[in-house]
Sequence to fold (189 residues):
Amino acid sequence: MRIIGRDTYRRMPWKNGQGLTEEVAAFPEGSGVEGFDWRLSIAHVDSDGPFSPFPGIDRTIALLDGPGLFLDLPDGGCVALSPGGAPFSFPGEWAVSSRNAGGPTVDLNVMTRRGRCGHVLRRLPLDGERRLRAEGVTLLVSSGDVRLGAGGVWQGLHRFDAAVLDPGEEVLLAAARPCDVLVASVFAS
Fold:
């Protein structure tokens, strides 16, 4: 298990220049937005507007903080991301726009290059203790403070920090206050 503190995330403008993102992790390490196989980032959505296009990329987004976010889809449909709600997956080629529901939001984004990797993002409500076994390379980001135990050693994970687990690694998650842990599992295609 490896902890990545939020203070080490690389901060950069969105690809379309209309917002800010914090890159949590990417593979290969040091790859830019055009060369990653997979990428995990935190987006700050302060105003309504279009998403950056990412052709050839599969994306999943989930709300980390804020009142909610509406995603306007190219087929005219709309998806609402809400506190505690399910993540939403879509192709990076889609022309998606977002509208904040009552204020700025913070969102977790998982992106994988189609044909090289795939991913699953799920929300894990945590109130007390819970075991988790990594499926593929697994990255955890929490909406609150969490302790992670493995092999008798405990480490702290603060709000929006990340933990990286190797395939098959098992951890015990513990939280003094209820929070959500977003669990991103990445697999080779």
